[in-house]
Design goal:
globular; two-stranded antiparallel ribbon; about 1500 residues; about 0% strand; 7-stranded parallel β-sheet; 70 helices; 9 strands; mainly alpha
């Protein structure tokens, strides 16, 4: 077309100057300039043939008079500017046309100076535009000019100019991100490089020069464009650089393969690699490129002797990288064995060293690990971790860097650690186990001098980021599995402390504790004790939480003691003093003794007056090391010696005990010293008690208590003096008050023989109480509320609350009455509790005269809230001791009645007011008071009680994300709102309170969906109070179960509704629990039983406790059964699709499980009421596993009560529509008829069999379903409650019905029969081994049990003939396709092109609306065959035996292009799944794989589009053959 246009122009005039001058006039446009370019090219052709002497001059005129001004205008007026002539896209076209015309002019002019001049000017514009924002359009125009005239520059004369142009273009290409940079990389640099010489060397030097990370894409774009120059084939080589010998070139290719985000860059990298291998093979010349490492492997090498091996290596490598572009695991997995062969090629068998640099292999793993497809990433991680299980690879620094970098980054993904299909819950993560084995093997193979640095980097990587709970657990477990070696010094120990801090960020306490246990194991295995001191070890141990991991008496504690004992003499000496300022020795006993001494000794300047409290961490350190040292000493002898332990303990604690015995008599002890001593005392008493079974044999705890008892008198006097003598007067002293009260509570709970006078700490209860009451009463005298007075008031109230709590814990209420009769302590105490009065803030002027408070002191609002909290603690104690309401007559009261009970409504109002001011972590005593007040007011003051319910629930709702106080407050709330008396009264009056309680109940159940454990607490409390009466609660409390039966109903159908990440957490927690005492976290952390399983466990155990001889129990069970059947009917009638493992499926499963538990309690009269509903459930088209339950319960009913057999026979008389979905159910029941009628007389048996022949005729044509083990089909394992869950749940006793869930039969060993039904849509992975599939379908008969194939084809052909359609022999198999839209489109395509049949996985897809919208009734005219995915292998074999060629639509290494494939007449087309494609197991059965040729970057088409292309090609080829015939 261009040639015709040029000839037409030349036909108008033979004078080129006239034509050129004409074209250069008028408005510049892309079309005009392109026409000018065509004409110049035509004139150039004529000039080459010797004509046209005027052409050079004309070309110079066009260049100087038209093109250069045009390009200058375009450069100075960037795209997007308001006065820009053309828009962006036409402007680029105009630029390109002007550049091409200018290049032709330069050639025609024959004057290199013109090209040089234009290049100089454009180079200046390029540099100027690059430095000024907004002038990108100018740079674009300058690049076009340089690309046009660059090839015209002379390599020798214009060498410096070429070099400057190349440098500027390279800088723009590598640093820029706009159109100009793309032009420089895509056009200018390749144009310069193709000229060779100085330009090529300049471009090459810039590309391989050392620089920062930079952008890989432009480099590879330029390298790809210059590949023919840098990697020339034999015979094409000119003098220039050889890219194969440059390490920078190969590193750039590797970066493109592994790190590039866009597919085009990766494709360019593969092209360069493939060309380098092909060129090397053609040349056959040895070539080597080192990696820059001393004695390191080569990045690339070639040898003619190893040609075949090297070609095979690079062929496989490029194939793997190509396959990874598909990002589909089913395509990649079959290729991964070739990756193993790459390692075999790359490692020398003779020397065991790398022949090729391992960075090539790591590029493959990086691509897999960084894939968006999590399945592919997991496969990459798994494959790499398995490397060292089968082979020993040489050491390489790059491998270690890869492990510490990309591999650990990939291991941070929690989803990688899920269970494998079919793996039992709690069996552990397969990936976690592989990680353990890998790390142990890799570290063992490392050179000794490198183990330390590698492990240090591993640990530092663990501490450098925030990890989720599951990854940090398995990484810690892997680290603990490393064989024992001296690899870590002080820096490594500090890094482990950093990891411990990372573990504290997770809310999963059990996982957090288990991770800490593993990290301590790792420290004991890997730390070089000679490089660390005992103070370093103690600081590390302090990072562990004793309440989560390092509990005394656990196996971990014992291992730590043994480790300290073995290495006691090996610990190093620090060069500096420890944190406490002591100079250490190597002996553990000496270190602990000096540690305690230094701790007790307080510097003279630390008086502590009005100062802050000492840090509790130092006290915890002292207590931990004392107990460890004592236990280490105890393990040095074979048998424990009580006297030896006592002597050692006394030796350690002598400074502490000496100071404690002086507290009561020495008033001048430094305050900071007394604080330290009391902190150490409290910490010792709290941590000395061992956990687990070893508590009974412990000797240290009694000995410690005996030693403390000797100082109790002195401590008691000190506490009494400090709390009652106005010595606490500052805000900081409130922290000391809290410390003193902790000591008071700990000492009050100590067992011991105290003699006639009793415990000294209990003797101060009365004086402490009386003094506190006096202080509280004295503050009402009208004095100014100074800071000191208000602090003492808060101290007195806190002391009073502590007395009440101690008395309640020790059941010491008579202690309050040890005073003289006129003291009247209860009245004084209650008079000191003005419920509406709060702690006033001190006067500002008074406060300003005091020394400045420490910045860490709490605000006054917190102090006032604590004051209110302590008030309600006292009130709660007194209300519990005076529960009786005052009689109406005022005469004969012997004991005074507390005023709050005289006016309970006023007290409840005060409680509501307190809830408005108290923070959420201080409302617990108010809830306890409301629990005692509401039952007295519910009948008379219902609105106030409802307000209390509402306000309390709002507080609980706002606390759902606060772990520390949520569960204790929730427990108090449940005990308050769902108190037996409250429920009874509310149900009796049936007022608003009754409905409010039910509303809260349902809200709590809804909260359980996002907050696991809420429903557990509610159902456990209710079942305990209803089924196992508490002391003082009558048996009549069971009536609450009937009044609130919705709670039991919801509990029976409640279960796991986890997201995938939540299910993973539950799996890992179960795994940790299964470790038992081997994991110290299981011993130390209390099992809260908050898993969702325990809701149903509690409900089932409650039902087993019921007595069917009790009329109320029997009525409750019958009512619950009816509600369960109604629930099941409601779920079955739902329009929501019920697929396998759906919520509807699970609810139905739980309903029938519960009915089977209740069935033995039902009598004939009740069954007569519900038998029709049970049979009706058998007619519903449910999942197969639900039908098994229905069959089971029908069999049990008929066996126990044969009187219902007539109703059963009637089921076979229903219409055909009903029998389609129920025939298997009732025939399965019929298969057990011999058991059902075994209790009938022989004559009645024969009569039953003879009277109903139709069901037996149906047996001959319809298969019966399998046995009971089929119940286990279709539901994931976490839906089934393990037997040990019932045994572990001890909140309810095991009743007479407990044997129902403790069956001795090992159900897991049973297998379904040959005719077992399967749940629709269930996972097919476990069904591959099953022989057949027997769902009865509504439409075309299933293929395996149909007539012979010939008859089927005749039926199809007959049908087609009646429709007037041509029939082909093409069968399209779409059983692997899930989406209804794709299936509907394929159905329409198959019908249009006359396919013989469309095979689908389930004929139920036909009723889907999305299918129908795409198929537009094609399913009515196309034969449909159902073959489920597990049956595909057998179906394909059968079709192959019938002469069909099985064709897979898949991209494989040996696929045939669609354009080159000739379809046989009998073709079976197998289409893959939308995401996974064709499984590897089926690819092996294919006769041929056909792929659709592609030219774009995207590597896959929609499955419907792919199928349509192949169906059309088949129809086209068959049509051509028919025409030829």
């Amino acid at each position: 077309m261009e040639w015709v246009l040029a000839e037409a122009l030349l036909g108008l005039s033979r004078d080129p100057r006239v034509l050129l001058r004409t074209l250069c006039q008028g408005e510049a446009s892309a079309e005009r300039v392109e026409t000018l370019h065509f004409l110049l090219q035509r004139l150039e052709d004529e000039a080459a043939r010797g004509g046209g002497d005027a052409l050079p001059e004309a070309a110079r005129e066009v260049a100087a008079g038209y093109l250069v001004p045009l390009l200058r205008r375009l450069r100075t007026c960037p795209a997007g500017a308001p006065d820009a002539d053309p828009p962006a896209r036409p402007r680029r076209r105009l630029l390109r046309a002007a550049g091409a015309a200018l290049r032709t002019c330069a050639r025609l002019a024959g004057g290199p100076p013109l090209a040089a001049t234009l290049a100089e000017e454009a180079l200046r514009d390029l540099r100027a535009a690059g430095a000024v924002p907004g002038l990108e359009g100018g740079a674009e125009a300058a690049v076009e000019v340089l690309a046009a005239v660059g090839p015209c520059l002379r390599p020798r004369e214009d060498g410096p100019l070429l070099q400057r142009v190349a440098e500027a273009a390279l800088a723009l290409a590598l640093a820029g991100d706009g159109e100009a940079a793309a032009l420089a990389a895509g056009r200018l640099l390749p144009a310069l490089g193709r000229g060779g010489g100085a330009a090529l060397r300049a471009v090459w030097g810039g590309l391989v020069a050392p620089s920062g990370p930079g952008r890989v894409g432009p480099r590879l774009q330029v390298l790809s464009a210059l590949a023919e120059r840098l990697l020339p084939a034999p015979g094409e080589r000119e003098a220039g650089p050889d890219a194969r010998r440059c390490a920078r070139f190969w590193r750039t290719v590797q970066a493109g393969l592994a790190d590039a985000e866009d597919a085009l860059t990766r494709k360019q990298a593969r092209y360069l690699l493939q060309r380098a291998a092909e060129v090397s093979a053609e040349q056959g010349v040895p070539c080597t490129c080192g990696s820059g490492e001393a004695n390191g492997p080569s990045l690339f090498w070639w040898s003619g002797e190893k040609k075949e091996e090297l070609l095979k290596f690079w062929e496989n490598y490029i194939l793997i990288m190509e396959t990874l572009e598909g990002n589909q695991i089913h395509v990649i997995k079959p290729v991964l064995p070739k990756l193993n062969s790459l390692f075999e090629y790359a490692v020398s068998e003779e020397t065991g060293r790398w022949l090729l640099h391992p960075s090539w292999h790591l590029c493959v793993y990086k691509r897999m690990l960084e894939s968006e497809n999590k399945t592919l990433a997991k496969e990459g991680v798994t494959h790499f971790l398995q490397l060292y299980e089968t082979k020993v690879l040489p050491f390489s620094p790059e491998l270690s860097e890869f492990i510490i970098g990309p591999l650990m980054d990939a291991l941070s993904e929690s989803s990688l650690y899920g269970r494998s299909p079919g793996q039992q819950i709690g069996s552990g993560s397969p990936l976690g186990l592989k990680l353990q084995r890998f790390l142990a093997a890799y570290v063992s193979l490392l050179p000794e001098e490198l183990k330390s640095s590698f492990l240090l980097k591993w640990i530092q990587k663990m501490s450098s980021r925030h990890w989720c709970a599951v990854p940090i657990l398995f990484l810690s477990k892997a680290l603990a599995s490393v064989p024992r070696c001296k690899a870590l010094g002080l820096e490594g120990l500090l890094a482990l402390r950093g990891v411990l801090q990372c573990t504290m960020a997770t809310h999963q306490i059990l996982l957090r504790g288990a991770a800490q246990c593993h990290l301590l194991h790792a420290a004991m295995n890997l730390v070089d004790v000679e490089e660390v001191s005992l103070s370093d070890i103690s600081a590390f141990l302090m990072s562990l939480r004793q309440e989560e991991s390092l509990g005394r008496g656990t196996a971990l504690w014992t291992e730590l003691c043994d480790w300290l004992r073995v290495n006691e003499s090996c610990f190093g000496r620090p060069s500096t003093c420890g944190s406490l300022g002591l100079q250490e020795t190597c002996s553990l006993n000496a270190y602990v003794k000096s540690l305690v001494q230094e701790y007790i000794t307080s510097p003279a300047w630390e008086t502590g007056e009005n100062g802050r409290m000492p840090d509790w961490a130092e006290a915890k350190l002292v207590a931990l090391m004392v107990l460890l040292a004592v236990d280490v000493e105890g393990r040095k002898v074979q048998h424990s010696e009580r006297q030896r332990t006592q002597n050692v303990l006394r030796l350690f604690l002598e400074p502490l005990l000496d100071a404690l015995t002086k507290l009561g008599s020495n008033a001048y002890l430094p305050l900071r010293k007394t604080d330290r001593c009391l902190q150490a005392l409290v910490t010792l008493l709290r941590t000395c008690s061992p956990k687990g079974a070893s508590a009974r044999d412990d000797e240290v705890s009694p000995l410690l208590q005996d030693l403390v008892a000797s100082a109790t008198e002195s401590i008691s006097n000190f506490l009494l003096r400090r709390l009652t003598m106005n010595e606490l007067s500052s805000v900081a002293d409130l922290d000391r008050c809290h410390l003193y009260l902790q000591v008071f509570a700990e000492l009050a709970g100590l067992p011991g023989k105290w003699g006639e006078r009793g415990s000294p700490i209990l003797r101060i209860i009365a004086p402490l109480r009386n003094a506190s009451i006096r202080h509280l009463q004295d503050t009402d005298s009208g004095l100014v509320p100074t800071l000191g007075r208000q602090v003492q008031r808060a101290v007195s109230m806190a002391a009073l609350a502590a007395v009440c709590e101690v008395c309640a814990a020790l059941d010491q209420t008579p202690e309050l009455q040890l005073d003289p009769p006129d003291a009247g302590p209860p009245e004084q105490l209650l008079a000191a509790l003005p419920l509406g009065q709060r702690l006033q803030k001190p006067q500002p002027e008074e406060q300003s005269s005091l020394p400045e408070e420490p910045s860490s002191s709490p605000g006054w609002g917190r102090i006032a809230a604590q004051y209110v909290h302590d008030q309600w603690v006292c009130l709660s104690f007194l209300l519990r001791t005076h529960r009786a309401l005052p009689p109406t007559s005022e005469g004969a009261l012997l004991d005074p009645v507390p005023p709050p009970l005289q006016t309970p409504a006023r007290t409840l109002q005060a409680a509501l007011a307190a809830l408005t001011v108290l923070p959420s972590d201080r409302v617990l005593p108010v809830f306890r008071c409301m629990k005692l007040l509401v039952p007295q007011l519910l009948a008379s003051s219902e609105p106030v009680c409802i307000e209390a319910f509402d306000m309390a629930w709002k507080i609980i709702s706002t606390l759902s994300n606060t772990q520390l106080v949520f569960w204790s407050n929730l427990k108090a709330f449940v005990q308050f709102v769902f108190d037996t008396k409250v429920l009874t009264i509310a149900a009796k009056i049936k007022g608003q309170a009754y409905f409010k309680i039910k509303e809260i109940m349902h809200q709590m159940i809804e909260m359980s969906a996002v907050k696991t454990g809420v429903f557990n607490m509610l159902i456990t409390h209710c079942c305990q109070s209803w089924g196992v009466p508490a002391p003082g609660v009558s048996q009549g409390s069971f009536s609450n179960a009937a009044d609130y039966s919705e709670l039991l109903l919801e509990a029976c159908v409640f279960g796991t509704v986890f997201r995938r990440d939540q299910r993973l957490i539950q799996d890992v927690q179960t795994f940790i629990e299964n470790l038992g005492h081997d994991c110290a976290a299981n011993v130390v952390i209390e099992n809260t039983k908050r898993e969702d399983h325990y809701v149903r466990v509690c409900a089932v155990k409650f039902l087993c406790l019921l007595d069917d001889s009790s009329a109320s129990h029997k009525a409750f069970m019958e009512d619950l059964a009816i509600k369960l059947l109604e629930k099941e009917a409601l779920v079955s009638s739902s329009r929501t699709r019920c697929y396998a493992n759906s919520q509807q499926h699970r609810v139905q499963n739980r309903v029938w499980q519960t009915l089977l538990v209740l069935f033995p309690r039902f009598d004939q009269n009740f069954l007569n009421r519900i038998i029709d509903k049970i049979f009706q459930a058998g007619f519903i088209n449910s999942q197969a596993s639900i039908k098994y339950y229905i069959e089971w319960i029908i069999i049990l009913i008929l066996h126990k009560f044969p009187q219902f057999l007539p109703k059963f026979w009637d089921c076979f008389s229903c219409g055909e529509e009903h029998l389609k979905t129920s025939i298997c159910t009732f025939l399965s029941v019929l298969s057990h008829l011999d058991i059902i009628i075994q209790n009938l007389p022989e004559k009645e048996r024969q009569e039953e069999l003879a009277a109903h022949p139709r069901p037996f005729l149906l047996c001959s044509v319809s298969p019966a379903s399998g046995l009971l083990p089929g119940v286990l089909i279709g539901l994931v394992e976490d839906e089934w409650i393990a037997i040990d869950k019932f045994a572990k749940f001890t909140d309810l006793p095991s009743g007479a019905g407990a044997h129902r869930y403790l069956s001795a039969t090992q159900l897991r060993e049973l297998r379904p029969g040959d005719w077992a039904q399967q749940d629709a849509g269930s996972h097919s992975g476990e069904a591959d081994n099953q022989s057949e599939w027997t769902d009865v379908q509504k439409k075309v008969i299933p293929w395996r049990h149909a007539a012979p194939d010939a008859d089927l084809e005749l039926a199809f052909q007959d049908r087609a003939a009646k429709l007037g359609k041509a029939i082909s022999r093409l069968i399209v198999v779409a059983s692997l396709i899930d989406k209804p839209t794709n299936l509907g489109g394929l159905c329409r395509t198959c019908e249009v092109f006359g396919a013989a049949a469309l095979v689908v996985g389930s004929l139920q897809c036909v009723s889907d609306k999305q299918f129908q919208q795409l198929s537009v009734s094609a399913e009515q005219w196309l034969p449909l065959v159902e073959v489920k995915p597990p049956q595909l292998a057998g179906y394909l074999r059968q079709k192959q035996a019938e002469g069909y060629t099985v064709i897979g639509v898949e991209q494989t290494a040996r696929s045939t292009a669609l354009t080159q494939y000739c379809f046989p007449e009998r073709s079976l087309l197998l289409l893959g799944n939308e995401r996974e494609g064709i499984p590897a197991s089926l690819i092996q059965q294919l006769d041929v794989c056909v792929e659709i040729p592609q030219r774009g970057i995207t590597r896959s088409l929609n499955v419907h589009v792919s199928g349509a292309l192949l169906i059309w090609e088949y129809a086209r080829q068959q049509g051509r053959r028919g025409a030829q015939a």
